[in-house]
Amino acid sequence: MPDLRQTRRKVKIALAAMAAVDVIAVAVYFSPLVGSQSARQDQLHQLWRELQQKTREVEPLRGLDKKVPVARKQIDQFYNDRLPAEGSSISENIGKLAGQAGVKISSIRYDMKDPETLGVRRVQIEADMNGDYLQLVRFINSLERDQMFFLVDSVQLGGEQAGMVKLQMKLETYLKTGAA
Is 36 exposed, middle or buried (0-12, 13-18, 19+ CB in 10 A)? Predict the structure, then answer.
């Protein structure tokens, strides 16, 4: 006759193992690690939205290796076309624009800063001018539209005498490095 003790022992071990698996399965099912199906769906949707957002954030960087040489070429063209090589070009250009607009420059001061690492030197300009209001407006407009690059920082209108308005203006431009 077969040994019943050994068979019983094997059956008990098998039942204990199945009970342990059942306990583990119930713990996992009710565990917060797994969560409900709706919670998993919500998490999936949230992760999908995050993926889409990250994809949109990265989109401008695609093709960056091709954009950098184009940008460098555009910067070089800007420097060549819009920045003077000599300081005298600045005063000559401002004088020409003032003459075309009918504005009289009473005083003008230039302050050249140390060269920057970008290959340019900042030039701050303070000017006092006289003219009628329309002439001053034309002058400022022509400065902003001129081929040479000017940034108008501030404009202060002074008093008016016999139709002539005083204007104090602060602006800046840049010289290519190596220019005096």
Answer: exposed
- Condensed to tens digits (0 to 9), the pLDDT of residues 68-103 reads 899 999 988 888 888 898 888 999 999 999 999 999
Mean pLDDT for the chain overall = 87
Which helix or strand (DSSP H or E) is residue 169 part of?
A: strand 164-176
Amino acid occupying residue 57: E
Greatest alpha-carbon span in the chain: 134
What is the crossing angle of helices 133-145 and 87-101, to 10°?
140
35: left (phi over 0), alpha (psi -120 to 50) or beta: left
- Record the tokens describing residue 106, joined without a space: 């009473």
Map out the domains of the chain with their CATH numbers: 86-176 (3.30.70.60)
CA of 95: how far to CAs of 73, 88, 99, 130, 175, in Å? Answer: 31, 11, 6, 13, 17
Name the token pair of 50.
């995050």
Q: pLDDT for 33-49, tens place per residue?
A: 666 777 778 888 999 99
